[in-house]
Amino acid sequence: MTDSYNSTRLDNATLSLFQDSNTSIAISIIYMVILAINLVGNGISMWLLVFRTTPKTPSIIFMINLTFTDMALGLALPFQIAYQLSGYHWSLGPRMCSFLTLVFYTNMYCSILTMMAISIDRYLGIVRPMVFKRIRRRKFVAVITCFLMWGLVLSILHPLMTTDLTFDIPELGITTCFDVLKKDMLPSLSAWAAFLFSMIFLLFLFPFCVTTFCYVNVIHTLSKNSSTSQKERAIRLALVVLLVFTLCFAPNNFLLLIHTVLRLFYKKSLYMAYKLSLCFSCLNSCLDPFIYYFASKEFRQKLRHMMKLQTSSGGDSVRIERNQSFHTTHLCASEC
């Protein structure tokens, strides 16, 4: 995001960014690859999670929510690709620009919160099984949690819904979408500070810390009470989740903070680095199916069966033990 500073003219450095066709083409190619993987991977995941996986545990409900956000991003990517290939010219109007921008950021932050919810669910089930057992109507709680996450993200991103994010650049004959923002998009610097704090600290750093805490404790507990294969799957799951955070989400959020501060106070820019980080943040929609694979035993079983890789003696082909006593090892056998 660059800042127009309430002027109809942009500085030469900003104008040169929109004339860099090589970067625009590179970003478009990355989006195309992400789009193909997104639609295939998440299409299969949604079918398996909704129609082939039972029972619908809280983790499965969270995974369905995560898949839904990823598929919404996939449906928005063709518009972003067309925008990039047309030289940053947006022709679909301000409302569509605001809606697709909202889809991009909602996907990111709903994904972060959903990963945190999955980690908390596994932490309670494995590290605090007695607390987990006392929670009644866990499916209902998971559904309500998903709605609360969406409500929190949409309330924080409310300025994106109420602001015209398009900007005319007569020098280049183009209209940008969420690439040039007016400084008065928010009424004051304190409003900008609150907006950035909510996005970066509340929707990113706090969930990241909670997720890390949960998986560290899960691995520690499984190392004492579970088989080697169960522990290895838990470690792989933790590594995939942390990879998504560090590769997809961390660069974008930190660059957003640094770029906005530089632009508001020093009239400098990290726009192109931020633009690339936003592109790579979409990779989370390609990595999320790996989270399902390591987090849900039945998802692995159904996927292997669909791909004709399941063997009659495989450890993952054993039945779900619904009627055994509830303890840490049983929960790990069902969900790990």
From TrEMBL:
<feature type="transmembrane region" description="Helical">
    <location>
        <begin position="191"/>
        <end position="216"/>
    </location>
</feature>
<keyword id="KW-1003">Cell membrane</keyword>
<dbReference type="InterPro" id="IPR017452">
    <property type="entry name" value="GPCR_Rhodpsn_7TM"/>
</dbReference>
<feature type="transmembrane region" description="Helical">
    <location>
        <begin position="237"/>
        <end position="266"/>
    </location>
</feature>
<feature type="transmembrane region" description="Helical">
    <location>
        <begin position="140"/>
        <end position="161"/>
    </location>
</feature>
<feature type="transmembrane region" description="Helical">
    <location>
        <begin position="25"/>
        <end position="50"/>
    </location>
</feature>
<keyword id="KW-0472">Membrane</keyword>
<feature type="domain" description="G-protein coupled receptors family 1 profile">
    <location>
        <begin position="41"/>
        <end position="292"/>
    </location>
</feature>
<dbReference type="GO" id="GO:0035025">
    <property type="term" value="P:positive regulation of Rho protein signal transduction"/>
</dbReference>
<comment type="similarity">
    <text>Belongs to the G-protein coupled receptor 1 family.</text>
</comment>
<dbReference type="GO" id="GO:0005886">
    <property type="term" value="C:plasma membrane"/>
</dbReference>
<keyword id="KW-1015">Disulfide bond</keyword>
<dbReference type="InterPro" id="IPR000276">
    <property type="entry name" value="GPCR_Rhodpsn"/>
</dbReference>
<keyword id="KW-0812">Transmembrane</keyword>
<keyword id="KW-0297">G-protein coupled receptor</keyword>
<feature type="transmembrane region" description="Helical">
    <location>
        <begin position="272"/>
        <end position="295"/>
    </location>
</feature>
<keyword id="KW-0675">Receptor</keyword>
<dbReference type="Pfam" id="PF00001">
    <property type="entry name" value="7tm_1"/>
</dbReference>
<protein>
    <submittedName>
        <fullName>P2Y purinoceptor 8</fullName>
    </submittedName>
</protein>
<feature type="disulfide bond">
    <location>
        <begin position="97"/>
        <end position="177"/>
    </location>
</feature>
<dbReference type="GO" id="GO:0015057">
    <property type="term" value="F:thrombin-activated receptor activity"/>
</dbReference>
<dbReference type="InterPro" id="IPR003912">
    <property type="entry name" value="Protea_act_rcpt"/>
</dbReference>
<feature type="transmembrane region" description="Helical">
    <location>
        <begin position="102"/>
        <end position="120"/>
    </location>
</feature>
<dbReference type="GO" id="GO:0007200">
    <property type="term" value="P:phospholipase C-activating G protein-coupled receptor signaling pathway"/>
</dbReference>
<keyword id="KW-1133">Transmembrane helix</keyword>
<feature type="transmembrane region" description="Helical">
    <location>
        <begin position="62"/>
        <end position="82"/>
    </location>
</feature>
<dbReference type="GO" id="GO:0007596">
    <property type="term" value="P:blood coagulation"/>
</dbReference>
<keyword id="KW-0807">Transducer</keyword>
<keyword id="KW-0325">Glycoprotein</keyword>
